[in-house]
Design brief:
By secondary structure, the chain is of the alpha/beta class. The strands form three sheets. The chain has a four-stranded parallel beta sheet, sandwiched between helices. It has a three-stranded antiparallel beta sheet with strand order 4-3-7, with helices on both faces. It has a three-stranded antiparallel beta sheet with strand order 8-10-9, with helices on one face. A hairpin with a 6-residue loop joins strand 3 and strand 4. It contains 35 helices and ten strands. Helix 1 runs parallel beside helix 2 and helix 28 runs parallel beside helix 31.
């Protein structure tokens, strides 16, 4: 009955399928029910046979995957995903439900993973020599010939032959919409085998060079089953392999192909998988475009379009879009009409999508993108029972997830944590420890519910690859805290730069890895003492200061960290002025960022003990004054130093205006003056400074209008970079000031004509108008006097 002929006695029943095809899955179930085999052989790694009974567990829910990883290199791994609509999963479940033995027959993962290792090392694909010395001369030559073939997509070739430009649409028309072998359960497999036989005769292995060896192993496993069960053998495999498995080839030849294959020690287990990772867009080579749609076709074989469009309507209504039952009815009619116009037996995903866009989304692709993400692809995450084999670290992580009520989910979700609560603090520590181990289940995000050191926001999404990362991290310890501690100590010793060690110290505090801190701090102190690069020291200081703040929030003893931070700051003060001399434009801009970072770090220290009673801040102001006065320091750094002193209240506005006037005098080259302006008014608050200080604004305005035409094109990029960073409102206000002409005034301190709030003096009436509001906000003191009345308004 296969291949257009009756199956001979003792010949295996070969059921060629498309991986993750719901039509193939239904056809496999019908064929197994009709033929009732005594054993079911399935394409999959042979080492996974002991895991087959776990597929019958109540808490095993697809999509799941077989994960094989090298014992000595857990990061070297391979997956065999299975969804509810995968033919292999249907065959596996049918065998378990009917008490029939099931076995995997593909090449063992021990060889597959070794192949990957050898390819990375630059060896040949078959793992052996090409000169015949490995005893596989003929097989090696045949393999070489096959490797020269052009890689082909069998479904793509068949679709093109039938006049289709889309293999998915062709598959839907000829398989998904034709039922599951009505009348003859084996008819779909007969037709597919005939097509694949023709393709194999034309293309050989189609460029899939390893298939020759894989098929040799499968033939040997099939012969073993035939000797044991005679004519009751059913094989479920990719349709591409059926002609090769049907081919009669000697046992000796097959064994010769398998001789001398490389090996690695391998462990195999079940892990959860997701629909998103089943899609081709997720990087899965044998993936499909629409796993959510295929799952729907498998679960709803009757009236699939009507049920699908009802799902879409429910999703859009949940997103506050107006979609009524009438929309669903009209969308169904449109999808059926489109299918008829396009000559298709039934509406497919393309027709359903076009109908949704036209009827439910009003022609917009924005809500349609949501439908594709949530339904066409989907975020379904499978589950595996607790009894599956796993490394101890995985077990500890699962216990911690249950205790903290952090359930892994395939859909991305946002998690807000209050670190003052014990549960929030524990969740934060777990996520930080996992990040240190390279298990990026959660990623820090900007909080929308508030800011401050007592609050954290994370975006969580569990990806199947994290199971590999967990197995890989298992070499560091059997529990998450122990593994993270060992990893932190090793990373500290291996760190290349001082900034890497300071970032690691910050991470250890966030993750509460107290046992790792002594090692990290010792390495940090040693690196800080030996590093003479001021840029490296300036990069390291902000992370140390942030660590001190996190230590305060989490109740961590950071005395040693404070001493290192203070010593680091002192070395920055000494080395910064000479390091800033004679820099080119790019180096000066990079050093400006370091100056800003150090200034912000010292501001965070405030009056903390690490600030040494304010002495560090005083020393820093002296350094800024030195930078502002040295002609050898680039203009962007001198301007920045003046601006920081002004912000600190250490420089009067009159003095700042005087310094700006000197820089913007005709004797200064326009490019140097523009760099000084960029340093002074660039960054946060620079635009508001010009808006509210008419003298500074007038100086810049008059200088800019006086720049010669031949020099203007040179300074324009600097000025554009500076002013384009301002908020739109600030730029608009500056434009109004320019339009009203402050640059035409003779004196920089003259009021801007017609602009409210600008004048030569203080408007006492406007200043006093705020007192009633302060009275309401602050309330009266015990003596009846409003605290707001005693507020000294700085004018």
């Amino acid at each position: 009955m296969n291949g257009g002929r009756s199956r001979d006695a003792g010949e295996p029943l070969l059921l060629g399928v498309r991986h993750h095809g719901p039509g193939s899955a239904r056809a496999v179930r019908a064929a197994l029910e009709a033929s009732r085999p005594r054993v079911v052989l399935i394409e999959g790694p042979s080492e996974a046979d002991p895991l087959i009974p776990l597929a019958a567990a109540e808490d095993m829910r697809p999509p799941v995957a077989l994960l094989a990883h090298a014992v000595d290199e857990p990061g070297r791994s391979a997956f065999w995903p299975l969804a509810a609509f995968s033919p292999e999963w249907v065959a596996l479940r049918w065998a378990l439900e009917h008490g029939v033995p099931a076995r995997f027959i593909d090449l063992p993962a021990t060889h597959t993973l070794a192949w990957e290792r050898d390819e990375e090392d630059g060896e040949d694909e078959d793992g052996g020599d090409r000169d015949g010395e490995d005893g596989r001369t003929d097989a090696g030559a045949e393999q070489d010939a096959l490797d020269e073939d052009v890689r082909v997509d069998p479904l793509g070739v068949l679709a093109g032959t039938a006049g289709y430009d889309d293999a998915e649409r062709w598959w839907e028309d000829v398989v998904e919409h034709r039922g599951a072998g009505k009348g003859d359960a084996l008819a779909p497999f007969t037709a597919l085998e005939e097509a694949m036989t023709a393709l194999r005769e034309t293309y050989g292995s189609g460029g899939h060079g390893r298939d020759l060896i894989r098929e040799a192993h499968m033939r040997l496993r099939i012969r073993e089953a035939q000797r044991e069960f005679e004519d009751g053998v059913a094989v479920v495999c990719g349709a591409w392999h059926v002609p090769a498995l049907r081919r009669r080839r000697g046992v000796t030849a097959d064994r010769a192909l398998l001789k001398g294959l490389p090996k690695v020690r391998t462990d195999v287990t079940w892990v959860p998988w997701t629909h998103r990772r089943l899609s081709r867009a997720g990087g899965y080579g044998a993936g499909i475009d629409a796993p959510g749609w295929y799952a729907h076709l498998f679960a709803a074989p009757d009236r699939p379009v009507e049920r699908w469009l009802t799902k879409v309507a429910g999703l859009l209504r949940a997103e506050d879009r107006t979609v009524s039952p009438g929309h669903v009815i009209e969308a169904v009619r449109l999808a059926e009409t489109l299918a008829a116009l396009r000559g298709r037996p039934l509406p497919g995903l393309g027709e359903a999508t076009d109908a949704v866009r036209a009827v439910m989304c009003e022609g917009s692709d924005v809500p349609l993108a949501l439908v594709r993400d949530r339904l066409v692809v989907g975020d379904v995450l499978g589950e595996v029972p607790d009894t599956v084999p796993a490394v101890p670290l995985q077990r500890d992580l699962e216990r911690t997830q249950r205790r903290l009520r952090l359930r892994p989910e395939a859909a991305e979700r946002e998690l807000d944590l209050d670190l003052r609560e014990e549960t929030g603090a524990e969740r934060s520590r777990l996520l930080h420890r996992l990040r240190l181990l390279g298990i990026d289940w959660g990623r820090p995000a900007v909080s929308r519910s508030g800011t401050g050191t007592f609050r954290e926001t994370w975006r969580l999404r569990w990806e199947p690859e994290l199971a590999v990362r967990t197995a890989e991290a298992g070499v560091w310890g059997t529990t998450v805290p122990a593994a993270a501690t060992a990893k932190a100590e090793a990373d500290a010793i291996a760190a290349r730069g001082l900034a890497d060690v300071t970032a690691l110290a910050e991470h250890c505090l966030l993750a509460a890895l107290h046992d790792a801190l002594p090692v990290v701090m010792r390495v940090l102190a040693d690196r800080a003492a030996l590093d003479t690069d001021v840029a490296h020291l300036a990069q390291a200081l902000p992370a140390l200061v942030r660590s001190l703040r996190y230590g305060d929030v989490r109740g961590t003893d950071t005395a040693a960290l404070a001493e290192v931070a203070a010593g680091l700051a002192e070395r920055v003060f000494v080395g910064l002025p000479p390091a800033c001399a004679g820099l080119d434009a790019d180096a000066a801009e990079e050093m400006r960022r370091h100056v800003d970072a150090v200034h912000g770090a010292l501001g965070l220290l405030g009056d903390a003990p690490a600030a040494r009673d304010g002495r560090l801040r005083a020393r820093w102001r002296t350094v800024l004054r030195t930078l502002s006065a040295r002609d050898t320091v680039p203009g962007v750094l001198r301007g920045r130093a003046v601006r920081l002193l002004l912000d600190e209240g250490e420089l009067a506005q009159d003095e700042a205006a005087r310094l700006m006037g000197l820089v913007l005098s005709p004797g200064t080259p326009p490019a140097d003056a523009a760099a000084w302006i960029e340093g002074f008014v660039g960054g946060s608050g620079g635009g508001l400074l010009l808006v509210h200080d008419e003298r500074l604004f007038g100086l810049v305005d008059r200088w800019l209008t006086a720049v010669p035409a031949e020099a203007f094109t040179d300074v324009l990029p600097l000025l554009r970079r500076t002013f384009s960073a301002y908020d739109p409102g600030v730029r608009r206000t500056l434009g109004e000031l320019v339009r009203r002409g402050p640059g035409r005034h003779d004196r920089a301190d003259t009021a801007v004509a017609g602009v409210p709030g600008f004048g030569p003096g203080v408007d006492e009436a406007r200043a006093d108008a705020v007192l009633p509001v302060l009275r309401l906000l602050l309330g009266p003191d015990g003596d009846g006097e409003t605290r707001g009345e005693r507020v000294e308004v700085r004018r």
